[in-house]
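Worked problem 6 (solution included).
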Amino acid sequence: MLTSLPAVKTLVCDGYSALTENILTSTEPLILKGLIKHWPLVQQGKKSTVDAVSYLRSFYNQKPVVAMIAEAQEQGRFFYNSALTGFNFTRQQMSLNALLDSLCADGHEQRSSMYVGSTSVNHILPGLRAEQNDIPQLADKPLVSIWIGNQSRIAAHYDVTDNVACVAAGKRRFTLFPPDQLDNLYIGPLDFTPAGQPASLVDFHHPDFVRYPKFKMALAHAQVAELEAGDAIFIPSMWWHHVEALSDFNILLNYWWRQVPMHMGAPGDALNHALLAIKELPAAQRDAWRQIFEQYVFSPQEQQHIPAHARGILDTIDDNMARKLRANLLNSLNR
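Solution. The predicted structure is:
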């Protein structure tokens, strides 16, 4: 069902020359075909899993990693348990070498699914990026992470950041939905999540349209991307994406960044505060606050009627003003 969805637009890449103009201002997902095909890590993986693993080990600094492990009956789906009181997988601290040994072990019948995810490349594999396993235009981005594992399915979720995800080994499928499909994806708890971000409760391999009827409307807006080793995909901020690792051995590196200065706050914090301060207000008061947010946050206008020197937090937020706002919030919340 999902593979029959419309494909994400593809840009065939010959080097990085068109990267900046095509993604750094885009609001649509984009497959970057062959973007990293020349990486030494990709070339080693195309030789064999053993070669890719040996190449990774040459950079490993022996720091422990956290692996997610799901039993074979979960069929690679990392998710909640049936009652939403916990999860269907465990987290285990181990050596990356131990994980790689498990992934290379013979026999794939009734095999557990496992992966190390969202782990800083520089933290566990110092030197890997310096050996031409990097994208120059994104090298200064604040977070570059690696994901290593076998077959897995990660529920649809969004990231606050923009994202370029690079498939260095194996194959992956991304199913993407625009931000306005929030209501049709049946999102689970905000404060109890499998991997840090709110996630869709729909099983994409076996969607229950009786329980989740509006998911059909979400599928009408979905796009799918099938990526091989050497390919990458740009996923804009707030786009929902369901991710499947399709091979017995997979490596993905991704670049996360925001299009605002580092001193700006996290939008999720504002949501939490709004739930605390606004959600339970009487309807008329919520409507009033909706207008205030529209005026000052969502459709902000220059406050020409206020002298420039007196606009305070209504002016552009610089680092000093961000510090002042945080201090005010802390004082308010700690009463």
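Discussion: The mean pLDDT is 93.
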